[in-house]
Here is the input.
Amino acid sequence: MKTNRIIRLSLSILMLLPVALLAQDRKDKIETMHIAYLSQRLNLTSAEAEKFWPIYNEFRAEQDKLRKEHMDNMQHVRRAGGIDSLSDAEVQKLISSETDIETKQVEVRKEYAVKFQQAIPLRKVAKFFVAEEEFKRYLLNELKRRDHEGKGRDEDGPPPPGMN
Here is the structure.
């Protein structure tokens, strides 16, 4: 019996591995496109790039941490069976947590706007924040397009705006 469970668990893990690898591959491709897009839009000198990218990596780590907190909240709601399945105290805690996350996101943007100005000129900092929003819009539009077509696009697909 125990051996059967181990075999079934091992098979399940092996079956999920390609899905996990595909998801990671897709995430890596998006990140590569994102960095290429920012590089093209900001047109950093080598001296600027040397200062900018480490700060950017810190910025992304902070954003990822907040995104994870948000996803944890949403996963808690799904596991509970939706908002209506939560107690009033849990809903209040969720609202408080989500507004705290949004506040922290604004604080991170403010903090890193100052840090970026120490690495690159002010106008390039502004271009960075615009480019971040443009890239997000591109990804959302791409998802909508795929959903509308009902199929995926080819391996490379069209470049994000400003990448041609």
